[in-house]
Amino acid sequence: MAKKEMTYAESMAQIEKILARFRNEEMDVDSLAAEVKRATELIAGCKSRLRKAEEEVSKILES
């Protein structure tokens, strides 16, 4: 079964949860690296979606 791709909003919500756990010191050292890696992946996905949307809007405005 194919993995469902997260929406931009879902990704941002997960990033915010990770940041909240970090700020509230709810993250232990053992999970810190994994959480940072996950946040980095989510951020990269959000940047990609934003670039794609920007390109699409630019094409629409050019036509």
Summarize the structure.
The protein has 2 helices and no strands. With 63 residues, it is an all-alpha fold. The longest helix is centred in the last third of the chain and has 34 residues, at 29-62.
Q: What does this protein look like?
A:
- It is a single chain.
- The protein has helices at 8-23, 29-62.
- The chain is an all-alpha fold.
- Helix 1 (8-23) packs antiparallel against helix 2.
Shape: elongated
Helicity level:
over 70%
First-to-last CA distance: 39 Å
Low-confidence stretches: none
Largest sheet: none
User: Helix count?
Assistant: 2
Organism: Alistipes finegoldii
Family: Belongs to the XseB family.
Pfam families: Exonuc_VII_S (PF02609)
GO molecular function: exodeoxyribonuclease VII activity
Q: What's the helix and strand layout?
A:
Elements: H1 8-23, H2 29-62
Defining traits:
63 residues; mainly alpha; 2 helices; elongated
